[in-house]
Amino acid sequence: MYKYITRRVLQFIPMLFLVTIVVYGLAQAAPGDPLSGEILDPDIPAEVLEERREALGLNDPIPVQYWNWLSSVAVGDFGQSMHYTGRSVADLVTSRIMNTLYLSLFALGVTILVAIPIGIYSSKKPYSLLDYSATTFAFLGLATPNFFAALIAIYFFSFQLGWFPSQGTVSSVGLTGFEYFIDKIRHLILPGFTLGLASTAIYMRYLRTEMLEVMGSDFIRTARAKGLGPSSVLYKHTLRNALIPIITLLGFEFGTLLSGAVITEAVFNYPGLGTLFLNSIQNRDYPVIMAINLILAVTILVGNLLADIFYAIVDPRIRYD
Amino acid sequence: MSNERILDVKGLKTQFRIDKQKVAKAVDGIDFHINKGETLAIVGESGSGKSITALSIMQLIPSPPGKIVEGSIELDGVDLLGLSEKQMTATRGNDVAMIFQEPMTSLNPVFTIGTQVSEPLRKHKKLGKKEAKKQTIELLKLVGFPRAEDIFHEYPHQLSGGMRQRAMIAMALSCAPKLIIADEPTTALDVTIQAQILDLMLDMKKKTGSSILMITHDLGVVAETADRVAVMYAGQIVETSTVKELFVKPKHPYTVGLLNSMPKIDQDSERLESIPGMVPPAHNFPQGCRFAPRCKHAMDKCTEAVPDLIEDGLNHKVRCVLYDGSGKGVTHV
């Protein structure tokens, strides 16, 4: 097992290398550079801008720029933001990453806490009223784009009902202790549920189907034939088998959540990595784009590795050696 | 062998609703009994209703669409059909246990053999973890695992089919049930393993005094294990007698056909005989005798009404017009 994990982690290195090449190329392929998108003071002479470009290294050939970036990243230096003058990339990213982590974990929690009980209930009483409602909700959840669900949530729960704030992470800077915590949670609710909507729908359907399939298997008949009660058959013998693919999928989910957060964060004006990422792309702030992208890539790779490890833990038939 | 009846099934009818109009009469009014310590075999082709009979006794018919519509199933004097689901749950695995056809898929892949075999003990005998483990290891030794302690901690995928079936037998025996139902317990196994498993079952029967209901399509298994035999065809019992008598003096043309389709060691025939045609579908049985369309002795009388199961000889019953007094019988084998 440890050998397997080490091998997988070593495989990350060439994969990440390839990812950076592709993303660097794509970012450079977009027209313009960090200085061209601004509404510039017409009094700044063109030579000054040109000097600035020269200083940032933007006039070097792209492979040279990439090499400069890569060699400093290799020693742990992500460089300076080209847009927010004077701020290091590491500083920008760390100021945002916790917010995104909270949001993703909140969405993941919503997914697990909503999808698993409803999925089980739907399979226990298939074709019941609740099952049909859950199915309808699932299809709506899958068919509604994230940003649209976000707008609807803001309209109803923020503007009409006024239950939850529609943007940001805190309402005032003066809060401390428990009040601060509650305020944070209140700000997480709308973006968190919006972000978790699609995956909740998927997991609910997935678990329902898995449960129904396992219920029809021979070993469930054996379990009933030995006189186990309905709850033991359902929660021990059926659920344990039905959760195998679900737990595996959860590993992948984390990477998906982080990247999905980009759009949700933008709609809720939530100061996380996602909004920073979008702004950086608009500003062609190459060092920030690359840093966030590396974080996303690492999360997805680690998520996939976790999925494989979970798989071996929950299913005794899987062994990596 | 005493004459005390451990299982007494009367007029059992189990049906499956296919759609609004169609109903499959999988088991259509069968009577049989098993005495204490006795082995009764039910033989028949696929689709004759023998497995549904077994599942009806366990009340594990998938419902809907299946339903026991009539009859009574008395286990040691208690009518199982009158029990609540809760009482039935306490009966399964405790008073009546079942061994299934597919050892490869009948064990839960994510739990150890030990966990699964000890479950009935913990549920019915209310044993603690330690005591259940001790008894389970004893059981595993009893069914022939030399390294029972290791097997206790192993998962089903680490075991071969024959070993899994041994584990299933250990599980069935764990609470010393009055009746063990074995639904084709050797069908999925290698021929060499089949004999071992049958020997094991007979051995266990001797040790525990349980009665066995053996469901099979293999007359070889019947000859080896059973005391009495009931031949099922299209949801009905068409013949019942002692095993010896059935092999020597089969009466029903279907039984004769089954026996003729077995290879014989003293005959050097090129091809085995077969019964033409197929078991009719359970939602569309022919009028009268259900075997008539495939029977070489069929006559007009056969299609008039379903013949009664009539006594013809000592403890020998047959459902065929040839034996209702007017007929002459079949010259067999």
UniProtKB/TrEMBL annotation, chain A:
Family matches, as CDD domains: TM_PBP2
Membrane topology: Multi-pass membrane protein
A molecular function (GO) term: dipeptide transmembrane transporter activity
Subcellular location: Cell membrane
Name of protein: Peptide permease
Entry's transmembrane regions: 12-30, 101-122, 134-157, 188-207, 242-268, 288-314
Family the UniProt entry places it in: Belongs to the binding-protein-dependent transport system permease family.
Residue ranges of every copy of the ABC transmembrane type-1 domain listed in the record: 97-307
Entry superkingdom: Bacteria
Alphabetically ordered keywords of this record: Cell membrane, Membrane, Transmembrane, Transmembrane helix, Transport
Automatic annotation (TrEMBL), chain B:
Origin species: Salipaludibacillus keqinensis
A GO term for molecular function: ATP binding
Membrane topology: Peripheral membrane protein
Gene3D superfamilies named in the record: P-loop containing nucleotide triphosphate hydrolases (3.40.50.300)
Principal subcellular localisation of the protein: membrane
Coiled-coil intervals, chain numbering: none
Gene Ontology cellular-component annotations: plasma membrane
Keyword presence, Membrane: yes
GO biological process, one term: peptide transport
CDD domains per UniProt: ABC_NikE_OppD_transporters
Domain annotation ABC transporter: ranges: 7-259
InterPro entries named among the record's database cross-references: AAA+_ATPase, ABC_Ni/Peptide_Import, ABC_transporter-like_ATP-bd, ABC_transporter-like_CS, Oligopep_ABC_C, P-loop_NTPase
Protein name as catalogued: Peptide ABC transporter ATP-binding protein
Sorted UniProt keywords: ATP-binding, Cell membrane, Membrane, Nucleotide-binding, Transport
Similarity comment: family membership: Belongs to the ABC transporter superfamily.
Ligase among keywords: no
Cell compartment(s), UniProt: Cell membrane
